[in-house]
Structure formats: structure tokens, C-alpha cells
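Q: How would the C-alpha cells look for this protein?
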Amino acid sequence: MDKNEEVIQLLKTYNQEHIIKLLNKLEENKKQELIEQINNIDFHQILELYENTKKEIEIKENKIEAVEYLDKEKLTKNEKDRFDELGENVIVSGQYAVVTMAGGQGTRLGHTGPKGTFKLDVYGKGKYLFEILAENLKEANKKYNTIIPWYIMTSRENNEQTQEFLEKNNYFGYDKNHVMLFKQGELPLVDTEGKMLIGKDLKIKEASDGNGGVFSSLRKTGMLSDMKERGIKWIFIGGVDNAILKMADTTLLGMAIDKNVQIASKSVVKANPHERVGVFCKMNGHPKVIEYSELPEKMAEEVDNNGELKYGESHIMCNLFTIEAIEKISKEPLIYHSAFKKNSYIDEEGKEVIPDEPNSYKFEAFIFDSFELFDDIAILRGKREDDFAPVKNKEGVDSPKTAKELYEKYWERQK
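A: Here is the predicted structure in C-alpha cell form.
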């Protein structure tokens, strides 16, 4: 059986005959491009993900318990000093790296271009999100007399623009030999019958596989090998859109080392029981974050003996992993969540269809789904005003306006 026949057989097996029809219409070079794409898709995985969309999410309350954490504000001076010293030793010895997840576009902010190129209106002249992060890292480099390797995860759609933007701005003064860009993985979009959508470029339409794809992307792009060659032991992974994100927090790092765990995270207390954030817990004895959409209302409102929310530690995308943990996770298939969304596509007549209603599933893995692969996690409770100024929505909560206020007030307090 020749290669074309193999591809056709594969498409028939997985009920994707509409792609066979498309292949028959394409010119040779376009046809070969599509065949190459087909050969890189795990059809069995996509079928399983599609089948899972028909199942109910079930959370059995009896298997969930509250998770332990340390409150940074309540640490004794001795504890804090011990943690800071442990953390500082790792950074000073060049065993620490930072990963910034920057694969998204700024569409929700009304911004055209990668989210990291969004300018936050601080101090009148404004600063780009990438600029804010670069300043944060440069300060750590100066303090610990090192250069922290900075890995930036982009996506297929924004990689080129991100590269151009950073070059044009001279990496905001960061040593470019220590800045590495790598692309996030993608998965096909499927309709309600499990058929893959075709895009305007006459290829199977794909979308980023969620922030949980960072682990396999680090491995597949050679970044994990690069970290090993540099002697990296600990990796911080955070998003591009938190204006006061501490990427080199020695207290968090030292606490993880002291507790002898492979993963650690920072939390802030939920603003109210129904804030739309994922919360930490233990499920079946393993650390987990439950998304706000999956947490039963009764549990969201439950309080402990001190009157605090029992499930009140929110995940703020401020995570630490040992290099061994990243290697382990990168080889494990994480749970994928499906989102039902509107996506345009090309029909069998070659016409573009722009739907009015959601018509297809996007599959995403979340970074915190990796926590379940471990027995324990160290959680450091921070403070919202010191640790969390996200830029997500155009207006209202977590908007440029709220992030600007938090950013300016934070730096005012540091003087």
C-alpha cells in the first residue's frame, strides 16, 4: 500500500471521508502539505477526546479534601530566612529557569497582536507586558548576580510577531542569548459529529492545546534538553498577563526544597465563593485544581473552623517544577477539557461557513492537571495586591484598569 493509500485508509477508519474528498480536489503541492499534516495527527486521541464530550463531568464530593498551605504573611522570620537562603542558592548557582506562556492573542482586550505586546497604561507612558516581565527578571539577575534563562512559549499564529517584536525592542535589554522561543502544540477542531474542520488554507483547522501543552512542547522542541545542558534544576512557569508576577520568588522556591516536593505553587485567597478561578484541593490523595465551572456550589461556599473558605486557595498560574517533574509530565497524556465554540470552516463545496452558534469542540489541557501525577505539592499563600494583577478582560475585573492600579500601588509600596 503506498503512502497516499495509507492516508486514505486512515481517514476512512476514523470517519473523516470529507477530507478524502478534499484531497482529491487539491493540487499536488497542497495535497502533500495536507498529507504531511494528517501524518502528524493522532487520530485515535482525537476520537477519544470527541467521545469524552458526550460524558458528564462527575465530581464525587467524598474524595475531595482541603489542601495544606503556608501563608507567606504568617511565616516566622526564621522560616522565611531559611526558605529564602535555600531558594537563593539555587538561583545564584544558575540552576533556575523561567518559562513564560505567551501563545495567546490579545483579542479579548481589543488588541491586535500577541498578548505580550499589549501596552499597559502605567506611569503615563505605558509598558508592554513583555517589558514588565523582562524588568522583573533583570532585577532578579542583578540581585543574584546571574542571568536566568528565559523560555517563551508562543503559538503558530503569534511566533513570528513575537520574535519580531522582541528583536525590534532589543529584548528590553535582556541578554538575547538567554531568551529562547518555542511553539505550543495544537490539536484539530471537530464538529458535533466528530468530523475535523477544514480551514481557509485548505488544511485541517487546529487550535492551541491549552497551557497544559507546555510540558510536551518543552520536550518536543528541544527546550528540555537545553535546560539540562545548562544544569537547570528548577523551572518556574507563569503566564504573560500578570503584571506583578514574581518569577524568582526565593521564599516559594526554598519552601519547595525544604518540603522536598517536586512541584510548588502560589495561591491567593478567593475574593468570594463564586469568583471564577480554579481552586486547590486534594482528590484521591493527590493535589488537584478544580475549575470554577466544575466545583459544586455547596463546596464553593463551605467554610472551615476559622470561618475561611475551605476551598479558597486560588490557582494564579504561578508554578514551580523540578526538571525531573517536567520530564515525567512531558511523557504522560494529561486530561483534556473540551470547550464548545464557534469556529468558521470550509464546507464540502469549498464555501466558507461562519456559524451563528457554537458548532465545534476545542480540546485543551490545563497546566494544573499535571499536579495529579504527584503525591504532594507545596503551596505558598501570597497576597492579591502583591502577586496577582491579571490583564484578561477589556473592562471590569482583571482588566487593564485594575492591573494598572495594582501595578502602580505595588511599586509605590516597594520604595
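The mean pLDDT is 93.

The two ends are 71 Å apart (CA to CA).

Upvote if useful.
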